[in-house]
């Protein structure tokens, strides 16, 4: 019999990264939306972009709540959903509140939990995502690590070696599939009033940048001083913070609404530089071969930094980081550098492990050497 696999997703990164897994699982996949992202521009647009019908959303009152209430609401709701219609396995991705609640609900009911993108660590517990990663890591049964470094984090924490599998990251295949061709990219850039290589693309949404008006003002000012037009599609949280914080927007910074994944990739592929606090963008630039300033205190994706694609900086260091990334010859070098996040076959490996977990027959993982 075909097993039933609940695939929990609540945010646009989860939609993008889990779509290849849903496709690879075929009829076994039963996607479920939590409603963590409730804005249609952050959900329906992205489901359409990956060719997936919006899945059932059995929970109510999730979006817009604070973190504690959101996790508690989803944990209670998902527990009831899984108890009423028990799946053979549950897949969660990354480090969102939805993934945390989905993993706990399944674990407490004795349902195998498959964690996609397991083992990321920033070692910064001030980040809500870091706590979510630690909780999911404690209850997951199958850990699909994108890189050997992620696998080593899990093994050092005492995760059984036979539960850790290096699969690569589904962002590689998701980016390749969603990236428009050259003609479409040129049309998107023209529609936004920019030309290839003549602009910066930025995204800002993390609380560390949006919840402090002084920090947000400094970041907007730094973007305005880069000497190029800056496209800044705004997350709803960021738009609200700009207004409520009275943050002046420099003339060079062009604010816009959220864009779908294909449009974002078309703009990213043509940008001279990206500036972002997004985790997913740190991965996508390695597929696109683009330089990125990461505006954060810490990162759980050091592979992007180690490979030379990204530099970590605060608002005051954006200009210096940009000059370093755009030094003569380096952008051309990045365009030739392979992504450290895998070969584009992560989804098929994850699907195989998930189906095995549903049948309670996960194969032992290959040993991963741990540096000492």
TrEMBL record:
Coiled coil: none annotated. It comes from the Bacteria. The keyword tRNA processing does not apply. The keyword Isomerase applies. Residues 32-352 form the UDP-N-acetylglucosamine 2-epimerase domain. CDD domains: GTB_UDP-GlcNAc_2-Epimerase. GO terms for molecular function: isomerase activity. Gene3D superfamilies: Glycogen Phosphorylase B. InterPro entries: UDP_GlcNAc_Epimerase_2_dom, WecB-like. Keywords: Isomerase. Belongs to the UDP-N-acetylglucosamine 2-epimerase family. This is UDP-N-acetylglucosamine 2-epimerase (Non-hydrolysing).
């Amino acid at each position: 019999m075909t097993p039933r696999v609940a695939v929990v997703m609540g945010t646009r990164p989860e939609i993008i990264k889990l779509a290849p897994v849903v496709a690879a699982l075929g009829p076994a996949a039963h996607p479920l939306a939590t409603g963590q992202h409730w804005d249609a521009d952050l959900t329906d647009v992205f489901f359409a972009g990956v060719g997936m019908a919006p899945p059932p959303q059995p929970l109510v009152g999730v979006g817009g709540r604070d973190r504690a209430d959101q996790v508690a609401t989803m944990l209670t709701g998902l527990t009831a959903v899984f108890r009423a219609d028990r799946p053979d396995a549950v897949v969660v991705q990354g480090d969102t509140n939805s993934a945390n609640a989905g993993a706990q609900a399944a674990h407490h009911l004795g349902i195998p939990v498959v964690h996609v993108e397991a083992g990321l660590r920033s070692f910064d517990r001030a980040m809500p995502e870091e706590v979510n990663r630690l909780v999911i890591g404690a209850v997951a049964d199958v850990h699909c690590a994108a890189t050997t470094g992620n696998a080593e984090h899990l093994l050092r924490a005492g995760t059984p070696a036979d539960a850790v599998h290096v699969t690569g990251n589904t962002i590689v295949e998701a980016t390749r599939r969603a990236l428009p061709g050259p003609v479409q990219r040129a049309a998107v850039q023209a529609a936004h009033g920019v030309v290839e290589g003549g602009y910066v693309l930025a995204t800002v949404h993390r609380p560390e940048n949006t919840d402090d008006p002084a920090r947000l003002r400094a970041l907007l000012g730094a973007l305005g001083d880069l000497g190029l037009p800056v496209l800044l599609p705004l997350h709803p949280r960021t738009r609200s913070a700009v207004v409520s914080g009275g943050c002046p927007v420099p003339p060079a910074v062009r604010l816009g609404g959220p864009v779908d994944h294909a449009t974002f990739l078309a703009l990213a592929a043509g940008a001279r530089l990206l500036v972002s606090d997004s985790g997913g963008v740190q991965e996508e630039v390695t597929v696109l071969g683009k330089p990125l300033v990461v505006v954060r205190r810490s990162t759980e994706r050091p592979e992007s930094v180690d490979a030379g694609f990204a530099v970590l900086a605060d608002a005051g260091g954006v200009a210096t980081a940009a000059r370093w990334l755009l030094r003569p010859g380096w952008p051309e070098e990045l365009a030739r550098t392979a992504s450290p996040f895998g070969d584009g076959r992560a989804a098929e490996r994850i699907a195989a492990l998930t189906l095995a977990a549903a049948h309670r027959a996960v194969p032992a993982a290959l040993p991963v050497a741990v540096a000492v």
